[in-house]
Amino acid sequence: MGDIRSNGKAKFVINFSAGPAKLPAAVLAHAQKEMLDHKDSGVSVMELSHRSSEFIKILHAAEEKLRHLLTIPDNYKVLFLQGGGTGQFSAVPLNLMQLKPGHSADYIITGSWSAKAAQEAEKYGTVNLVIPKPKKYTSIPDRSTWTLNPDASYFYYCANETIDGVEFQYIPETNGVPIVCDMSSNILTRHLDISKFGLIFAGAQKNIGPAGVTLVIIREDLIGFAMKVCPVIFDYKVQAGNNSLYNTPPTYGIYMMGLVFDWIEEVGGVHKMEENAIKKSGLVYDLIDHSEGFYNCPLDLDCRSRMNIPIRIGFHGAHDVLEKKFSDESTSNGYLQLKGHRSVGGIRVSLYNAVTVEETEHLVEFMKGFMSRNRQLMVSH
What we know:
By secondary structure, this protein is an alpha/beta fold. The protein folds into two domains: 28-265, Aspartate Aminotransferase, domain 2 (3-Layer(aba) Sandwich), CATH 3.40.640; 268-379, Aspartate Aminotransferase, domain 1, CATH 3.90.1150. Helix content is 35%, strand content 15%. It is built from nine helices and 15 strands. It has helices at residues 25-34, 53-70, 84-96, 112-121, 236-241, 251-267, 269-289, 319-332, 357-379, and strands at residues 5-6, 12-15, 76-81, 104-107, 126-129, 155-158, 160-161, 166-167, 179-182, 199-203, 214-219, 295-296, 308-313, 335-336, 347-350. The strands form four sheets. The chain has a seven-stranded mixed β-sheet. Strands 1-2-14 form a three-stranded mixed β-sheet. Strand 1 and strand 2 form a beta hairpin. Helix 1 (25-34) crosses helix 6 (251-267), helix 6 (251-267) crosses helix 7 (269-289) and helix 8 packs antiparallel against helix 9 (357-379). The mean pLDDT is 94. This is Phosphoserine aminotransferase. Residues 14-363 form the Aminotransferase class V domain. Pathway: Amino-acid biosynthesis; L-serine biosynthesis; L-serine from 3-phospho-D-glycerate: step 2/3. Keywords: Amino-acid biosynthesis, Aminotransferase, Pyridoxal phosphate, Serine biosynthesis, Transferase.
């Protein structure tokens, strides 16, 4: 059944985790094959020195594969760092806030992660909120309502809010101010013009590998402006000057990223990933929109995420009973990690690149059956 994996029992298992997320079965099989002996070296990748010729080849290959997949221009550096997206909430202002004399930056808050990023940036400079912080994250206000600072050092946004399910379907226009984008949960899922960005960062654990690696793609002219208080580990100039080897990098995670890049290329590249993302999310949203209120997605149509779909079940007052029942039944039937984030509740369907169309179809059929069996509970509470 496609990429659906058996857990060794008489049922299949599909992982819909929001992160760390499902990895392609072909990638895991390849890694398993090389686990004890990488290319006849006699050692595991996990045992290779990060300064060995074998690992340098792995590192360079991963970068070249990514450059090809995303068509990254030559005037951009690719860094493989640590600290996660949260580390970049600090690293970005520490490196870029001083690009302009005013030491200020524009932030648009559209969800939980961009809110955390803006809060962290306030430690290092002046943060201009492009829109007032929303009470709930269900939309992206029209650009005509934004208040942009033409003298900002950079403009920051989160392309896809993993918790809240808000996704930009476009790249914001900032009138020349460098764009910084947290792309942790939707990188490699749609075609992008990288040249429109000053910096992109992404934690690996959604679409590009296991947890532990943080990818940074930065335009070269933005390197070299770090504050004196910037920890050396977060200094882009230091890391770029040392080819991401200033300190020991997450070697095995980088190796796994390279395998994921190979897999994406083999199945059709970013174009195919985008095509699949549209199909998969369309299947789930179509069910929601035709469920007569049984399933609800609180987001405006124009910012619905292709990656993370938050769902409430039933009307207010029936949520708890139905969602607990759904969580229990979905897990017992092999549909794993569908519980919503603790801060918002409900159900969350995460459809990263490794989740197949076939697996999504299986989930939708389960959701239809659950709705049929439990609709009476929606009106009885």
